[in-house]
């Protein structure tokens, strides 16, 4: 028991380390590597809770550590990606505006604190989950840097990213209900939305590659708005 109780927290720390590495790559403008480490962090984030339930070693410190790790990997790391991305597109005299990207880190922290206290989110989510937001920005950076964009469009892209920062900051802490990929049973009835979303998401990834995560997150938000009733 003395060993197994440390397994979930060790996995959580792996999530946190992935977020730190992703942040380092993001500051250097290496968006692909930053995105891959965010994905790795998301995998660790899934398995720490799974391990805690499997081993029956859930703890208060584990819950706090998980939120801290999540804000690094899914808050600070994507904020840094957006910061560097804005630096690529903004004119030199306006690059100070790129610091606004760190609103994502602040609102991700608020989202995580709210989740820990909100008892309505046992079967679904209220507001966009931080991993989804992080995957959106990481995938978007991959797409934007993979295509040739005339420099005359840079300011418009920067403006669109800035609006996106404000929108994602809002939706993280909003009262918009979102469905969760949690299954009480695995039959089709009652899980139509989940199975359909997974199938379409797989198709998007097959067609668009890793950059398809941005489209998947947009689809997730739209489906949630159309299908979920306010809690």
Brief descriptors of the model:
231 residues; two-stranded antiparallel sheet; 8 helices; 3% strand; globular
What does this structure look like?
- Helix content is 69%, strand content 3%.
- The protein has 231 residues and is an all-alpha fold.
- It has a two-stranded antiparallel sheet.
Helix content, binned percent: 55-70%
Strand order in space, largest sheet: 1-2
- Judged by helices, strands and strand pairing, the structural class is mainly alpha
Q: How would a crystallographer describe the biggest sheet?
A: 2 strands, antiparallel
Given the structure, what is the number of helices?
Answer: 8
State the distance separating the first and last CA atoms.
39 Å
Question: Approximately what portion of the residues adopt beta-strand conformation?
Answer: under 5%
Per DSSP E runs of 2 or more residues, the count of β-strands stands at 2
Low-confidence stretches: none
Q: What's the SSE pattern?
A: HHHHEHHEHH
Radius of gyration from CA coordinates:
18 Å
Mean pLDDT: 90
Shape: globular
Task: Tell me briefly what this model is.
The protein has 231 residues and is mainly alpha-helical. The chain has helices spanning 7-27, 31-55, 60-89, 103-117, 130-146, 154-172, 192-208, 212-227, and strands at 124-126, 177-179. It has a two-stranded antiparallel ribbon with strand order 1-2.
């Amino acid at each position: 028991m003395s060993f197994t109780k440390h397994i979930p927290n060790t996995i959580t720390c792996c999530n946190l380390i992935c977020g730190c590495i992703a942040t380092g790559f993001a500051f250097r403008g290496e968006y692909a590597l930053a995105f891959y480490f965010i994905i790795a962090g998301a995998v660790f984030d899934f398995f720490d809770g799974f391990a805690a339930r499997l081993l029956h070693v859930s703890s208060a410190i584990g819950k706090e550590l998980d939120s801290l790790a999540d804000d690094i990997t899914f808050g600070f790391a994507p904020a840094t990606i957006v910061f560097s991305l804005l630096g690529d597109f903004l004119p030199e005299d306006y690059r100070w505006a790129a610091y606004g990207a760190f609103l994502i880190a602040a609102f991700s922290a608020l989202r995580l604190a709210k989740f820990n206290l909100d008892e309505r989110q046992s079967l679904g989510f209220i507001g966009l989950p931080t991993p989804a937001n992080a995957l959106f920005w990481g995938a978007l950076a991959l797409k934007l840097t993979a295509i040739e964009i005339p420099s005359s469009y840079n300011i418009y892209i920067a403006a669109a990213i800035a609006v996106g920062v404000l929108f994602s900051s809002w939706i993280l802490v909003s009262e918009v209900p979102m469905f969760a990929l949690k299954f009480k049973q695995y039959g089709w009835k009652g899980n139509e939305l989940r199975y359909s979303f997974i199938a379409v998401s797989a198709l998007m990834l097959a067609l668009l590659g890793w950059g398809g995560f941005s489209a998947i997150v947009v689809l997730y938000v739209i489906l949630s708005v159309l299908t979920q009733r306010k809690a």
